[in-house]
């Protein structure tokens, strides 16, 4: 089973990247056009590397079964590779991360070839709606507005906890402390984080960016904090030699299940059901926990049944 990853850059340049091993490691608008094919030499090298990667899957992974006739032979999957450690570009220039590894393994089990295209946040779901991609795997939560336009996998593949992130020497420890001190957070318009801030009475201003720029804003004193999944912040701080400069405080403002998203058509519905079954299988056989140990905090991935929606 071969799985191709295409990295789409916002300048329009396309780079063919080698797929990472499935289990053993290895938001403003962007360019949402289709990626051109790479040259034959690069494609051959990529295919060879992908074959090797597929052979290194753990014993927990099952062999690709006979593919359901309702499923396509291949799909293009939208991702956002500036959201480490869930989706990011490693030192060798390969798109990798927890979401990518989970999706590659699910595709393998379903007998589907997956091709990843990278988009900035604001372009991800529009790319799905327009048909440029058939699936999005990028830490997406369900919402009524999104469910009007897309199918979601019935089962999630992860559960995120969203914390308030502030400087390490900030004395505030609770939501009430944040309100009493008049701290100002940053948030991108239209995010679910915006609703969390509003619901908790936390003052905030809008900005365009990503976790990296949110971190830079706080460290430079341009804002007092932001909401984030701590695994993401911790990964970026370690990568940039700034570990210990920020902290998360209080209880999580929300704990949300993460789902894959599909086009709202017959094919998308079939894919949503198929991926749901595989996610629960991967939880049961320990594959999701193994990937958490590799890419995230290492906590067991369990209890996904609570997030199953019909």
Tell me about this structure.
- This protein is α/β, with parallel strands linked by helices and 310 residues long.
- The protein folds into two domains: 4-158 and 258-307, D-Maltodextrin-Binding Protein, domain 2 (3-Layer(aba) Sandwich); 161-255, 3-Layer(aba) Sandwich (D-Maltodextrin-Binding Protein, domain 2).
- The chain has ten helices and 14 strands.
- The chain has helices at residues 40-55, 98-110, 121-130, 144-147, 175-180, 192-199, 211-219, 230-239, 266-284, 287-295; strands at 4-8, 14-17, 74-79, 82-83, 87-89, 95-96, 113-118, 135-140, 150-152, 158-167, 185-187, 204-206, 225-229, 246-263.
- Strands 1, 2, 3, 7, 8, 9, 10, 11, 12, 13 and 14 form an eleven-stranded mixed beta sheet that branches.
- It is globular and about 60 Å long.
Tally of DSSP β-strands = 14
- CATH H-level name of the largest domain... which superfamily? Periplasmic binding protein-like II
Task: Quote the average pLDDT.
Answer: 81
CATH topology of the largest domain: D-Maltodextrin-Binding Protein, domain 2
Helix percentage = 25-40%
**SSE class:** alpha/beta
Report on the biggest sheet: 11 strands, mixed
Question: How does the overall form come out from the CA principal axes?
Answer: globular
Q: Over the alpha carbons, how many angstroms does the gyration radius reach?
A: 19 Å
CATH class of the largest domain: Alpha Beta
Low-confidence parts lasting 5 or more residues at pLDDT below 50? 1-64
Examine the secondary-structure arrangement and name the CATH architecture of the largest domain. Answer: 3-Layer(aba) Sandwich
Order of helices and strands: EEHEEEEHEHEHEEHEHEHEHEHH
Hey, roughly how much beta strand do the residues contain? 15-25%
| Domain module count | 2
Helical run tally: 10
Give the termini separation. Answer: 30 Å
> Multimeric state of these chains?
single chain
């Amino acid at each position: 089973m071969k799985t191709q990853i295409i990295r789409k850059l916002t300048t329009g340049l396309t780079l063919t990247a080698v797929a990472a091993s499935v289990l053993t490691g290895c938001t403003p608008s962007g360019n949402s056009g289709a990626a051109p094919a790479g040259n034959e030499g690069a494609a051959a090298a990529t295919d060879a590397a992908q074959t090797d990667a597929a052979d290194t899957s753990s014993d927990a992974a099952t062999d690709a079964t006979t593919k359901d006739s309702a499923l396509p032979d291949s799909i293009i999957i939208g991702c956002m590779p500036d959201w480490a450690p869930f989706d990011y570009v490693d030192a060798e220039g390969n798109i990798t991360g927890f979401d990518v590894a989970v999706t590659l393994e699910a595709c393998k089990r379903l007998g589907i070839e997956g091709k990843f295209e990278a988009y900035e946040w604001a372009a991800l779901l529009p790319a799905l709606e327009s048909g440029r991609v058939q699936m999005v795997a990028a830490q997406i939560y369900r919402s009524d507005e999104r469910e009007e336009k897309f199918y979601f996998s019935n089962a999630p593949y992860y559960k995120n906890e969203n914390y308030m992130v502030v400087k390490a020497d900030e004395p505030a420890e609770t939501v009430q402390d944040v309100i009493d001190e008049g701290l100002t957070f940053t948030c991108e318009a239209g995010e679910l984080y915006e609703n969390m801030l509003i619901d908790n009475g936390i003052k905030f201003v809008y900005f365009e960016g990503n976790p990296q720029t949110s971190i830079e804003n706080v460290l430079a004193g341009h804002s007092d904090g932001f909401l984030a999944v701590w695994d993401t912040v911790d990964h970026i701080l370690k990568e940039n030699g700034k570990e210990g400069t920020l902290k998360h405080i209080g209880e999580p403002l929300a704990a949300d299940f993460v789902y894959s998203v599909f086009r709202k058509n017959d094919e998308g519905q079939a894919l949503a059901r198929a991926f749901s079954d595989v996610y629960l299988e991967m939880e049961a056989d320990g594959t999701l926990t193994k990937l958490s140990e590799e890419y995230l905090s290492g906590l067991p991935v369990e209890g996904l049944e609570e997030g199953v929606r019909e």
